Amino acid sequence: MELTVYLAGEIHSDWREQLKSKAAESGLPLTFVGPQENHDLSDAIGEKIIGSQPNNVTRDDAASGINNLRTQVLMQKADLVIALFGEKYKQWNTAMDASMALTLNKPLILIRPESLVHPLKELSNRANVTVETVDQALDVLHYIYQ
Amino acid sequence: MELTVYLAGEIHSDWREQLKSKAAESGLPLTFVGPQENHDLSDAIGEKIIGSQPNNVTRDDAASGINNLRTQVLMQKADLVIALFGEKYKQWNTAMDASMALTLNKPLILIRPESLVHPLKELSNRANVTVETVDQALDVLHYIYQ
Amino acid sequence: MELTVYLAGEIHSDWREQLKSKAAESGLPLTFVGPQENHDLSDAIGEKIIGSQPNNVTRDDAASGINNLRTQVLMQKADLVIALFGEKYKQWNTAMDASMALTLNKPLILIRPESLVHPLKELSNRANVTVETVDQALDVLHYIYQ
Amino acid sequence: MELTVYLAGEIHSDWREQLKSKAAESGLPLTFVGPQENHDLSDAIGEKIIGSQPNNVTRDDAASGINNLRTQVLMQKADLVIALFGEKYKQWNTAMDASMALTLNKPLILIRPESLVHPLKELSNRANVTVETVDQALDVLHYIYQ
Amino acid sequence: MELTVYLAGEIHSDWREQLKSKAAESGLPLTFVGPQENHDLSDAIGEKIIGSQPNNVTRDDAASGINNLRTQVLMQKADLVIALFGEKYKQWNTAMDASMALTLNKPLILIRPESLVHPLKELSNRANVTVETVDQALDVLHYIYQ
Amino acid sequence: MELTVYLAGEIHSDWREQLKSKAAESGLPLTFVGPQENHDLSDAIGEKIIGSQPNNVTRDDAASGINNLRTQVLMQKADLVIALFGEKYKQWNTAMDASMALTLNKPLILIRPESLVHPLKELSNRANVTVETVDQALDVLHYIYQ
Amino acid sequence: MELTVYLAGEIHSDWREQLKSKAAESGLPLTFVGPQENHDLSDAIGEKIIGSQPNNVTRDDAASGINNLRTQVLMQKADLVIALFGEKYKQWNTAMDASMALTLNKPLILIRPESLVHPLKELSNRANVTVETVDQALDVLHYIYQ
Amino acid sequence: MELTVYLAGEIHSDWREQLKSKAAESGLPLTFVGPQENHDLSDAIGEKIIGSQPNNVTRDDAASGINNLRTQVLMQKADLVIALFGEKYKQWNTAMDASMALTLNKPLILIRPESLVHPLKELSNRANVTVETVDQALDVLHYIYQ
């Protein structure tokens, strides 16, 4: 039973690498997909492909269209979604991706630190499972195969 | 042609009252629904109905289940959704509600200040229309009836 | 904002009458629907309409087809569902109706006594809200209108 | 034509092993999935992954979120579902899973002893096929390939 | 609780009038819709609106497009469907409409004489309820309101 | 049986007024909705609401977001769609709206002159009914009520 | 691009074998599925698996539940459906399967003799393509790969 | 992560060959599908398979049914869609296919020359990404794998 997991959430830390390398050790047949992790590329991709834009609003819109296409293609391939919130940043894309997953009936594991319990309470309540660490999310993936 | 509009977003300012009162002046057949605007009640509703909870996590979870039920009932009645982001607060519920609306194929008008152009660029790209003020959102509603 | 509420669950007590009469006092624009509450009629309706059946299996099947048609028609009209489990009876129809509601994306309020916490834990986890009394379920309905 | 079959139902007997071993003998390209069959692990998985909980309600809720995620992932992979009811236990999860399958348009084979004809009559009427033994369910699987 | 009922089936007898007049006597809030009952008009409607056609195949295709549009509009309005098969005629439209209803998750009452038990066995098995007379179908409608 | 009809197609002639006035004479309970018919307003609405844009591409994008929101809101209310193609103009919005209607399972009447038979053959084949005049489309609406 | 094709229609002639053997010669990556072609087995399968039934109605119902499960499993795997009507038999299962396919958005090729043009006109109008011979249906399959 | 891409748009230039050959050089696991590119065959396929037709309207309808079946089968297999508009031709099939893709929730890349900005503004606004060249579309495909 191969499963594809979309990893939504912050792209400023190496949590995806940690999770992928531990999953690889376990030998489970998991494929991981997710957003563009090169932050500069993610912001610049619109102008890089389409050409220079007249202002910041249109520059951002050009990039986000391509990022959204990527997310839509990959999330539709996913069997479940893990969304990680850190303590910094606004992370509205993480909330947007998590809610898209839930509304598409894709199971969701939410990872968030204890400090974010209150502001994430409604999203946590909709998630299937809420944990605090990447290792706990990996434990949930393992449990599917036990 | 009566339309029901769900007003997602911050509950710390009176933007909903402004929008509703201006809409009422225009005489358009609009019904507005939205989240619980009494912040204290919204946080306390779990314990108020279900009884005291063992800790903050479960207190928050009890409240959020009831808030989520409310949102789900009312958003399913809505023909379109307006989501407002302000400059303060994490506002992950606003992002969650906006994404749910889009995924359910409900048209979305996003209201956000210029300062939030960059962090909201992917959500803005998915929205049908992005504006900066409540009056502009109201102009879009008027345009449907012109 | 009129709402239709399907009341799933045991038909051996008068909990629906309690809930309806308290809701009527509150003046909220709620319409309640639910299964056939006349237990004998519910069991006999197949033979009553279609004629006598060769054995108990076919007698039960004849009745259940008509009961299921009724549930399907009325639940499709419902905006949300309340499901009550009591301490007696197998109540598999209640579980079936509650799960149908959740899978159809209809919000669910689960009412169950403390003694059933463990056997109903997975259903409770999928429900939007779990309470122990009819009055608490009514409080949740009130909260939608506050 | 490979098919994946979700085996819902009681985890206190070895019916899944019987069914799987007989299916293996037949050489049909069937993959079987199902709930966690280690009952203690199933009840403890919440605290095992997330940590100790303040009381039984939250302990059960923590476990059930993870069990529900597992069910949702695996059932979405399934082409059809077999649900077995035995004479003991409340088995509300079995009823919940069977109804989820039917509502998701997954074909359902119901296995139940004659003694449960009456209380399961509505679920049996919605099922595609109702049988009394594991061997009969296996016969239905064989028939798909004949 | 107003319900709309689509009456599929033969247009050569007056069964719809019988059913409607008995339903009217009962005072139930039922609205009935259905196919064009004027057989000649139904066959001629293509040429009548679009103009003369080069041969019988295209004449029939022109009529059937308009008949199918009518069915699609009205069946999408229906809460449930009653399909009647008589002993004469091929009645493939009745089978087509009944199957469309079931696939759209509209509850179906099938009316067929005892002589058609065998050739209609698969459709009868998918229907919610199978009866032999118009009065029995009306009894099922009454039961929804009891 | 009230029906709402979305009128897609060119906004440079008065075909909608003709159709609406003839429908009004017939007394049928039809409500007509459609795109913004004031062409200048339709092109300018983006800058009018959101403010001046840096170039023609962004000016057009600002207007089209608002026009698309309008179409989405109104088409979701529609029971069927009429799409008219004339001999001039590219009319890609008409093709887009007609295809959206068909994909959403909304019945479609296509009106096109004989000169466009060949380039519209695939759309015509998907439409429920293809006619050449507004009067013929109105005849199809009448037929639903006969 | 592998495709799975469900072959609905009469089981009294060898049209499926003809079609499969010609398709095999062409080397196209097609997999064919369909109903049980052993007529006696198809009628007897209920009693064969579940045991003897009290009368013909229940015997037929037992068989049809198993046949319907088979159809549902296999049609959900299919990318397109071919339905053949011959000049004999009532063939309501063929009409039922064809309509299920269309309503599930599965493309349909209808094969019917010229003598059935009139009674099948509405189904033919809904089908993507209508032909008169098995070879023509095969030509359509070939065209997908050209 | 293998992806299937449907290439909608004009069949009078070799843009598909350019795109496929460049994609092949990159080694990405992409499969391309699309409409019949032999224009004469596309127009003649109806008469070629079904036989000579009485006039041009029916000749075109016969061909388009087969072309639409092909598009429906292949687009349902696609993970995303690229639609190219050139400066000539009416290209209503391109608009129809692009809108079908968007309504089916398939991500869309629109390729159009600057001269078509205005007439395609609504479709461009609904598309995920709009570019002007085949190479830019290929860049977007590459970005999914970065």
Helicity level of chain A, as a percent range? Answer: 40-55%
Shape of chain A: globular
> Mean of the pLDDT scores of chain A?
97
Please state roughly what percent of the residues of chain A sit in beta strands, choosing from under 5%, 5-15%, 15-25%, 25-35%, 35-45% or over 45%: 15-25%
Biggest sheet, spatial arrangement of strands of chain A: 2-1-3-4-5
Quote the distance from N terminus to C terminus of chain A: 12 Å
What is the name of the CATH class of chain A? Alpha Beta
- Please provide the count of β strands of chain A: 5
CATH architectural group of chain A? 3-Layer(aba) Sandwich
Largest interface, with Cβ-Cβ < 8 Å? E-G, 34 and 35 residues
Order of helices and strands of chain A: EHEHHEHEHEH
Low-confidence stretches of chain A: none
Which structural class matches the secondary elements of chain A? alpha/beta
- The name CATH uses for the topology of chain A is Rossmann fold
Number of helices of chain A: 6
The Rg value of chain A, from CA coordinates, equals: 16 Å
When the domains of chain A are counted, the total is: 1
Oligomer: homooctamer
Question: Largest sheet of chain A at a glance?
Answer: 5 strands, parallel
Could you explain the architecture of this structure?
With 146 residues, chain A is α/β, with parallel strands linked by helices. The first copy, chain A, contains six helices and five strands. Chain A has a single domain (3-35, 75-144), classed as Rossmann fold. Chain A has a five-stranded parallel sheet, with helices on both faces. In chain A, helix 2 packs across helix 3 (56-77). The radius of gyration of chain A is 16 Å and the shape is globular. The model of chain A has no long low-confidence stretch (mean pLDDT 97). At the E-H interface, loops of E face loops of H.
